[in-house]
């Protein structure tokens, strides 16, 4: 099965969770993309800078409703996408899919919550197990 990132994004915007096989493919694709990305990137102005989302998926949707969706808007996300909120899986899934679809318009920095030890403490690990039966 081939992954249709655009279809995944539309489903995520409707609040639908991706299937486990889709998440696996998204992770493989974004890993390659991020590995090839430079440590320092130039971001075209104007850019909308977004701080800690922490699994607040509905707030993220509101940000896109107000600021516009990529590729119409450049976004710089400062990390801490998961933990604390109840929709971390959907939040990081949407952001990573948007990065795949618009790599020069969506920029994702790594926060301290993007590590195994922090996610085990603050909830993302448990949420993955609850929603998918395992933490991948």
Task: Report on the architecture of this protein.
Keywords: Hydrolase. This protein is mainly α and 136 residues long. The protein is 49% helix and 7% strand. It has helices spanning 5-13, 20-36, 57-67, 88-101, 116-122, 124-132; strands at residues 48-50, 75-77, 106-108. α2 crosses α4 (88-101). The longest helix has 17 residues, at 20-36. The protein is globular, with a radius of gyration of 14 Å. The two termini are 19 Å apart. The mean pLDDT is 90.
Question: What order do the helices and strands come in, and which of them pair?
Answer:
Elements: H1 5-13, H2 20-36, E1 48-50, H3 57-67, E2 75-77, H4 88-101, E3 106-108, H5 116-122, H6 124-132
Parallel strand pairs: 1-2, 2-3
Write out key terms for the chains shown.
3 strands; 136 residues; mainly alpha; 6 helices; 3-stranded parallel beta sheet
Q: Any idea what the radius of gyration is? A: 14 Å
H/I helix tally: 6
Number of strands: 3
**Largest sheet, spatial ordering of strands:** 1-2-3
